[in-house]
Amino acid sequence: MIRVVVAGASGYSGGELLRILAGHPEVEIGRLAAGEQAGKRLAGVHPRFRGTELGERVLAESDWNALGEGADVAFLALPHGHAITAAPRLLAQGCRVIDIGADFRLRDPQQYTRWYGLEHSAVDLLHEAVYGLPEVFRPRIAEARLVANPGCYPTAAALALLPLLPHAADEAIVVDAKSGVSGAGRKASLEYAFSEIDESLRPYGVLSHRHTPEIAQTLAFAGAPRQVVFTPHLIPMIRGLLATCYVRLEEEPEDLQALYSERYRGEPFVTVLGPDELPVTGSLRGVNRCEVAVRYDAENRLAVAFGALDNLVKGAAGQAVQNMNLMFGVDERTGLEAAPTGS
Q1: What pLDDT does residue 242 have?
Q2: Which residues of the chain are modeled with pLDDT < 70?
Q3: pLDDT, position 222
Q4: Which of 93, 97, 183, 278 has its CB 3.0 to 4.6 Å from that of 179, i.e. a possible disulfide?
Q5: Using CA atoms, how far apart are residues 144 and 329, in angstroms rounded to an integer?
């Protein structure tokens, strides 16, 4: 059994992570930690766990010197800045770490400072961390001590774009994306109140969103450095994400549909939709899958690629469990093949 501990268990990603881990046949769930919610029962924070043994667990304080004791892997579902302190202490206890937050995603510490406003105090680990996008880094993830779980927008954008990159012109790639409000995390804020969001749509983080350098870095990792223009939008739903990406091509590949099918052949959690299908976020609710599709405007030599996923699953907790499976030599699909809860 893989002995796991979870920090940030009271948040949306933490709760989704525990939902998945509770059904994982190779996992033993150990200590659960939280910040302001420490001392409460898990079911008091996430009512979905009422009536279960897990729901009776009391959330502990986030004591990094004790959390990893006896554990094989720690999941950190924390606001940015916290994993920088936690990860070195957990690794020193012999515990592998999967950071669902942003602290180890960007390889350049100056970029981290620019976009997150903090000095990075664990630069050696920043360079050691493996970016946890299995469709690109599967062999490296399997050997990693520290995995930086990708952000939800970068996951959808990268999976939509990867097959096109060898054919892309040397121009900026435009990513226009929409996500549900759970992507903002579980915090009280007027701008995320129901009366502010319902029946409304708005862009945010225009030309300044922190996922912009992560998307650009991921494309560079894949061998195609490109400038990225990224605009996210908040839509009035709880979960779900759709990225629409615009890429000028040098010339149209002979068969774009075949290009996508070949790139993702054998990938258990990427579904290439047919030429008459487009992604629907509701059909991905609760599942660790990204749906991709592509269309081509021949007159403008412009490819339009789509990537859709559940921002809390393939965009966060589910991908983290997928990475854990790879790190411990478990079939990648284990615990992750539940049917969607939407249609």
Answers
A1: 98
A2: 183-192, 194-195, 197, 339, 342-343
A3: 81
A4: 183
A5: 12
CB 72 within 8 A of CB 2: yes
N-to-C CA span, the chain:
34
Nearest to 136 by CA among 150, 124, 125: 150
Residues 177 and 342: their CA atoms lie apart, in Å, by: 20
DSSP letter for each residue of 179-190: E-GGGG-S---G
Q: Looking at the chain, how many residues does it have?
A: 343
Q: Phi and psi for 291 in degrees, rounded to 5?
A: -100, 135
Whose tokens are 């779900």? That residue is 240
Beta sheet of 202-203, edge-to-edge order: 202-203, 228-234, 173-179, 241-248, 302-309, 290-297, 270-272
pLDDT at site 187: 62
**CB neighbours of residue 145 within 10 Å:** 17
Query: Where does the chain have alpha helices with state H?
Result: 12-22, 42-45, 64-67, 83-92, 109-116, 123-128, 134-143, 152-161, 194-197, 211-221, 256-263, 318-327
How many other CB atoms sit within 10 Å of the CB of residue 125? Answer: 21
Could you give the CA distance from residue 150 to residue 155 in angstroms, rounded to a whole number?
6
Give the angle 314-263-250 at the CA atoms, nearest 5°. Answer: 110
Instruction: With beta carbons less than 8 A apart as the criterion, state whether 120 and 113 touch.
Output: yes
Per-residue pLDDT at 195: 63
Closest C-alpha among 266, 275, 271, 308 to residue 294: 275
In 10 A of CB 292, how many CB atoms? 25
pLDDT of residue 343: 47
